[in-house]
Specification:
The chain is of the alpha+beta class. It has one domain. The chain is built from three helices and eleven strands; from the N terminus they run αββββαββββαβββ. The strands form three sheets. Strands 1, 2, 5, 6 and 7 form a five-stranded antiparallel beta sheet that branches. The chain is globular, with a radius of gyration of 17 Å. The termini are far apart.
Length: 167
């Protein structure tokens, strides 16, 4: 392997390690370290997308194992140190709490938010119409904000495919 290819592979590995998300039966946590924006793209905020996908996957996995959980909105931790410096450290912890039965569990998770602007919650709710079980609604957190200007609403619901027997 050439020196240049080795350096590129080593940089990719370091980036993956710095931006890793770990999930356990108690929740998911991870950190993004890097630029907020590249070519006008909100790169740092895309970490919320990645985290949401991992949380939803873990909730489904736990559900299949009969370990029924949902996200504990009141204990979410979110920090964005260094915002505006060109290198932000964005930390997220999305904790789970146990529920008594499979039909109290939630198996899908998402967010809506952004830096220094009000999240388009109504638009996101319209986009998610039809994803919940019939007769159920989206469970939406209070807005979570960091001092540096990131604002997020967290959203969970009963996945109509995974929890079809909970009608």
């Amino acid at each position: 392997m050439s020196c240049e290819k080795y350096q590129k592979k080593n940089l990719e590995t370091q980036t993956q390690e710095k931006n890793r998300i770990e999930c356990t039966e108690n929740g998911c946590s991870g950190t993004y370290t890097g630029p907020e924006f590249i070519n006008g793209q909100d790169i740092a905020h895309q970490f919320s997308n990645k985290m949401s996908g991992n949380v939803g996957d873990k909730l489904k996995e736990l559900y299949r194992e009969k370990n029924y959980k949902k996200v504990d909105f009141s204990s979410i931790k979110m920090t964005t140190q260094g915002m505006g410096s060109g290198k932000v450290v964005y930390y997220l912890f999305i904790p789970f709490t146990s529920v008594n039965s499979k039909c109290e569990a939630y198996t899908s998770f998402d967010h809506v938010g952004g830096w220094n602007h009000a999240p388009a919650l109504n638009k996101r709710k319209r986009e998610l119409e039809g994803v919940t079980l019939e007769g159920h609604t989206l469970d939406i957190s209070k807005i979570t904000k960091t001092p540096e200007g990131l604002q997020e609403f967290w959203i969970q619901w009963k996945n109509k495919k995974t929890q079809s027997d909970c009608k």
